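Sample entry copied in:
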Amino acid sequence: MNWLKNFVPPKLRKLVGAQKEIPDNLWHQCTGCTQMIFHRDLEKNQHVCQHCGHHLRLRAEERLALLFDGGEYELVALDQAIADPLKFRDLKKYPDRMKDARNKTGKDDALSVAVGSLGGHKTVIAAFDFAFMGGSMGIAVGDGLLSAARRAIAEQAPLVVVPSSGGARMQEGILSLMQMTRSTIAIEEVKEAGLPYIVVLTDPTTGGVSASFAMLGDVAIAEPGCIVGFAGQRVIEQTIRETLPEGFQRAEYLLDHGMVDMVVHRHDLPATLARIIGLLLNAKSEDAPMPEQEVLAIEEQTEPPVPVEEVIAPDSGADRL
């Protein structure tokens, strides 16, 4: 009977045709309404669910391609940070976790910085990738934000940061918390240079990221439905022993309470950013001091003031007043 098992099934499979392997990434489930979405439809709609309008997370390269004109940009090379400064280990060694994240995402760390044109204006964008260890902020991310700020100053270009992060990276301990200060200093350098700094809050923006550079923008934009806060809702409820209002920490709730300036649909985000950057750059040019050459030209064209003696004629009777 062995020949039946070994010979007949292969022959039958050859005649009928073996079932092809189906890739497991053809369909994606919406985290908002749990509907299944075909991957091409999801990409065509910029990872926004066509059933409920929920904004799914974007990878850093997808975010950059969405915002820059024509999807064209130049990545800024970032320096390598210290691999394992604290020799941290939990269930895995920190270098092993980093290796897994790099193999999964193809990136060195959670932040990507690029330069390109946005609405015709040269712009520097720093985008987080939540797929890389939850977009957590460590030394490499702090270095990347500093590089982005200084590149913006060198190019005299606006800086746009798109956070998507759970906060500081626990595997780097106090060194990760220090990046809150470093990133704040980087943003202050941009502002001192008189350049626009815009933040696009995406899901999620929490922890040490929300407590530092993410809430310092000249203009704060949020995607619909994204979570923005410091601690999680469950932790807050357990601490204060009260039930929080519906929609707490969502973009729309923050807009109603003055924490963000606007909530913008992903489809409208590039045009909105381009308009804001144009307005801020025009305001900067109007406030800038006039070049010395233009001042001299205006002085040459201006007629000298007429003496009072010539204005009052001798026979006008003014001497009798």
Notes: The chain has one domain: 59-286. Residues 316-321 have pLDDT under 50 and may be disordered. The two ends are 138 Å apart (CA to CA). Strands lie at 27-29, 36-38, 73-75, 111-118, 121-128, 159-162, 197-201, 219-222, 262-263.
